[in-house]
Predict the structure.
Amino acid sequence: MVCPRGGQPKERRGEEITEQLDYVPASFIVRRPGRGKYACKKCQEGVVIADLPARPIEKGRPGEGLLAQALTSKYGAHTPLHRQTVIYRRPGAEMARSTPCDWVGESAALRAPRVEERRRQIPGSPKIPTDDTPVAARNGSAQEIPKGFLGTYLDLLKNGVFDYTPGHRREGPLEFLGDDAGYLQADAYKGYDAFFAKGRAKEVACWAHTRRKFFEAQDTDPARAAEMLVSAGDLYQVEDRAKEEGLDRDQIKALRQEESQPILEVLETRLELWGPRVLPKSPLGQALGQAQGPREALNRYTDDGLLSSDNNLSEQVLRRGALGRKNGLFVGHDNGGHRAAILYRLVASCKLCGIDPFAYFRDVLERISTHPARRIAELLPRNWKPSRP
């Protein structure tokens, strides 16, 4: 290359790097760890073989990385297992559709003791947001697919726990929460009424649910619905300012008492004025009923800066189960529901703690067979530290 101006060959003066994003398809590798064989040099009898290295599934073929991928895809990315077998087939890994189901079942069994450790700690939290969603459980014939329910419970540190119950029975939350739950933030599910009636917990309602009803009523009664939505927006502005300023528990309570409480009093005046004038079954009437029924519970968040004005965090965590239900259609049976609850708990806790679920599953599955039972809490997402970089 000659310079047209100087007439001399051009010399290299460094380089300029340009990045291009490309994709390399996932690949499978086969590990073949060697095991020494020993025998008597003279008689050649009594041959012994060294023990197999520890595996996450005893006598199982999948390695930790493959199991972590299957679990993360199923419960983190909501890819059903039968679709995963199709994906694995592209790079040449043929397997029966039932094979990853067995892997997931074995993995859930390995993780169950760790999850139970977290489950025991949740009821001791002073504040527990909770919500649930239905899932189909195919226990019997194809004609009859009963509903089970996945419920989520969060503690003060945002650790998530899922629980599965075969039906929408009130004994489910009662059994999980035990004798005392402090503040319990939930929707208007009647199953909690017995719990609150016995004084086991103080009910905290959700302003997001209430506001949503007024949003739906805008088409039929736009003026009054808009008034309620504006006031609800003012309540949320107070909450946003508390987060932006990083206020502590006492400061948040003082701010709500000063600014949110007057707004709530205006809302109560409207509820008493409009209630008798609106048809109960109309969209606005239903919205007013949603706000009037748990009025004390809706206002309770102003009594303690520890509480939230809505249950959105619990709903966001529960959305994992809802997306999995949409893609997978049903959990298979009640055992599958309990298994899904275990693994959803771990993925949700990883997300809340800012941990990559794949890295967590891979590391823990590698250590799980040799980790001391007395140090079980170390393998919970909140306490987990990678064994190596």
Remarks:
- The beta strands are 37-38, 48-49, 127-136, 147-154, 160-165, 182-185, 201-204.
- The two ends are 47 Å apart (CA to CA).
- The chain has a mean pLDDT of 82.
- Residues 249-274 form the longest helix (26 residues).
